[in-house]
């Protein structure tokens, strides 16, 4: 039982991080290969504050997110004006720099040995509530003027500017929302595993999130979440076949990219309204036939 | 009022436009014609801020907008459409138009994350304005369609509706009739003159279909190889020997 609760909590933490990636990659079309570094900042800063400075958890979490956003702003300032492919390069470099920094500052962070002794505060209900709150906020964002402007900037930057949209600014907004959400996921992660080391926050983690978003459907929030749940939980459940896990994962991703390039969900959003419409639509079709 | 003063723009050694001047007052329809590669679209790109002029200036209502950022120029009151249609994929027809309203709508990022009363009110106001402009171009019934599924003529109209939503003082139409059939061209001609009367802005019109330009323009500028070669009323332009030469070639080319 403990095992499944643990998998579920990890999955929910991934879901939180991926809602951030969805805003960045799904809505705005920016690929970040260094997003996990912000998870690291969230994890280390909050852990450090609680363990070494005795700050209460909630305050530490808020400070960690604020610091991540400030760092994100500095990284974003030159980045958001760049072309998309360069954004990936800059964030990749930044992410690796953060990991290297954590490895080098052994006296403070514990270096490659990791930072341990963080109290276990994250529980399944906390992760669940956090995930729901993040999903709800992001889905409101998607339907707001910010969401529309993100999609417009992704679809045609020049035309977006010609409609009066301040493209660098909307990209920065999307980036900072993603950073805040990801670093919060980092906080939850640190206080769940009680131990963090720099290795888990490398570019592989960031790339994994991008894959999850594409797997589920880059244009669909619920699709991205669905993709995350499958791709996080499946390897854990398939632990008995540990040797073939990666093979299975790779095959699954290849199949999707080849046969359904827009992801499992495409642009479809799973919601009560859409479900009802789909059901009643089917009925109409039948009655017409 | 828009004033373009002696604007030049080069790309490397290519002088795309040289020393072009024009003025447009409220209610004017100004046609811009010339052979392919004459610099017509470059002129639009300079006015709307995609390029910055090397020399000369663009003045809108007494304000120098030459070196402003593109999105600020739009907010100052220059709306435009594109020669190759540039609608936003992934958004519906209504949402495409809403994008042009969004920079004008007033709610913060907090309202963006939650359904606050201010957000709901602003979204409603925006939707009404956008539906109004869709109605103006006769596209309200397609508002929930995806633009990429619509025929070419409707996509062109949607571009116009989107540009109108920016609430421009000057509207730049870059070949709005390209690829349209004769009926659609007639509808478009009628739409452009109606807009100009009802909304009362200035329209700059690039167009290859001479019957359209000659029919509705109050004044026409002719460009050739980036240089202005003539300006005047449609009648004057039709008679102008330089224009005839640019379009049809020299006298001896005739058989």
What does this structure look like?
The complex is a heterodimer of chains A (289) and B (255). Chain A is mainly α. Chain A has a single domain (2-288), classed as ABC transporter involved in vitamin B12 uptake, BtuC (Orthogonal Bundle). Chain A is built from 13 helices and two strands. A two-stranded antiparallel ribbon of chain A has the order 1-2. In chain A, helix 1 runs antiparallel to helix 9 (167-193). With 255 residues, chain B is α/β, with parallel strands linked by helices. Chain B has two domains: 1-77 and 169-255, P-loop containing nucleotide triphosphate hydrolases (Rossmann fold), CATH 3.40.50; 87-167, no CATH class. Chain B has helices spanning 40-47, 70-76, 93-101, 109-113, 117-136, 152-165, 182-199, 210-216, 234-239, 241-248, and strands at residues 2-11, 14-24, 29-33, 55-60, 63-64, 78-80, 170-174, 202-206, 219-224, 227-232. In chain B, helix 3 packs across helix 5 (117-136), helix 3 runs parallel beside helix 6 (152-165) and helix 5 crosses helix 6. Chain B is globular. The model of chain B has no long low-confidence stretch (mean pLDDT 91). Chains A and B meet through helix 6, helix 7 and helix 8 of A and helix 2, helix 3, helix 4 and helix 5 of B.
How are the secondary structure elements laid out?
The complex is a heterodimer of chains A (289) and B (255).
Chain A: H1 2-27, H2 35-53, H3 57-79, H4 84-104, H5 106-109, E1 115-116, H6 124-142, H7 145-155, H8 157-162, H9 167-193, E2 195-196, H10 203-216, H11 221-237, H12 245-259, H13 272-288
Antiparallel strand pairs in A: 1-2
Chain B: E1 2-11, E2 14-24, E3 29-33, H1 40-47, E4 55-60, E5 63-64, H2 70-76, E6 78-80, H3 93-101, H4 109-113, H5 117-136, H6 152-165, E7 170-174, H7 182-199, E8 202-206, H8 210-216, E9 219-224, E10 227-232, H9 234-239, H10 241-248
Parallel strand pairs in B: 3-8, 3-9, 6-7, 7-8
Antiparallel strand pairs in B: 1-2, 1-4, 4-5, 9-10
Helix pairs in contact in B: 3-5, 3-6, 5-6
């Amino acid at each position: 039982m403990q095992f499944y609760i643990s998998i579920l909590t990890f999955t929910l933490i991934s879901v939180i991080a991926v809602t951030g990636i969805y805003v960045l990659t799904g809505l705005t079309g920016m690929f970040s290969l260094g997003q996990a570094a912000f998870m690291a900042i969230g994890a280390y800063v909050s852990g450090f504050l609680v363990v070494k400075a005795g700050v209460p958890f909630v305050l530490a979490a808020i400070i960690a997110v604020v610091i991540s956003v400030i760092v994100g702003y500095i990284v974003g300032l030159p980045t958001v004006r760049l072309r998309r492919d360069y954004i990936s390069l800059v964030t990749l470099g930044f992410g690796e720099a953060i990991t290297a920094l954590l490895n080098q500052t052994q006296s403070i962070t514990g270096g490659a040995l990791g930072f341990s002794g963080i109290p276990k505060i994250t529980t399944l209900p906390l992760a669940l509530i956090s995930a729901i709150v993040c999903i709800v906020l992001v889905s409101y964002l998607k339907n707001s003027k910010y969401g529309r402007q993100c999609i417009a900037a992704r679809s045609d930057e020049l035309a977006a500017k010609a409609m009066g949209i301040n493209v660098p600014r909307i990209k920065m907004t999307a980036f900072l929302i993603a950073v805040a959400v990801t670093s919060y996921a980092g906080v939850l992660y640190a206080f769940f595993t009680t131990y963090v080391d720099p290795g888990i926050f490398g570019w592989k983690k960031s790339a994994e999130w991008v894959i999850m978003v594409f797997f589920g459907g880059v244009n669909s929030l619920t699709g991205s979440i669905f993709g995350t749940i499958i791709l996080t939980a499946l390897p854990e459940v398939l632990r008995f076949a540990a040797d073939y896990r990666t093979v299975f994962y790779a095959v699954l991703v290849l199949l999707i990219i080849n046969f359904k390039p827009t992801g499992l969900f495409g642009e479809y959003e799973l919601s009560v309204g859409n479900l009802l419409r789909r059901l009643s639509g089917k009925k109409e079709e039948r009655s017409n036939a | 009022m828009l004033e373009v003063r002696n604007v030049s723009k080069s790309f490397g050694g290519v002088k795309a436009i040289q020393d072009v001047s024009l003025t447009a007052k409220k209610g004017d329809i100004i046609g811009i014609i010339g052979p392919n590669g004459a610099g017509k679209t470059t002129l639009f790109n300079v006015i709307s801020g995609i390029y910055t002029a090397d020399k000369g200036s663009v003045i809108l209502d007494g304000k120098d907008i030459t070196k402003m950022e593109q999105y600020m120029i739009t907010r100052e009151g220059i709306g435009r459409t594109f020669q190759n249609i540039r609608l936003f994929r992934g958004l519906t027809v209504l949402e495409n138009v809403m994008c042009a309203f969004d920079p004008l709508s007033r709610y913060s990022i907090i309202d963006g994350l939650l359904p606050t009363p201010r957000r709901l009110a602003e979204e409603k106001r925006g939707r009404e304005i956008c539906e109004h402009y869709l109605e103006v171009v006769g596209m309200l019934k397609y508002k929930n369609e995806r633009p990429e599924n619509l025929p070419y003529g409707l996509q062109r109209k949607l571009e116009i509706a989107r540009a109108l939503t920016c609430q421009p003082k000057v509207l730049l139409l870059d070949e709005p009739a390209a690829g349209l059939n004769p009926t659609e061209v007639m509808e478009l001609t009628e739409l452009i003159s109606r807009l100009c009367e009802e909304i009362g802005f200035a329209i700059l019109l690039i167009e290859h279909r001479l019957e359209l330009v000659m029919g509705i323009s109050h004044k026409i500028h002719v460009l050739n190889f980036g240089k202005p070669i003539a300006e005047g009323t449609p009648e004057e332009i039709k008679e102008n020997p330089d224009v005839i030469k640019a379009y049809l070639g020299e006298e001896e080319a005739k058989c």
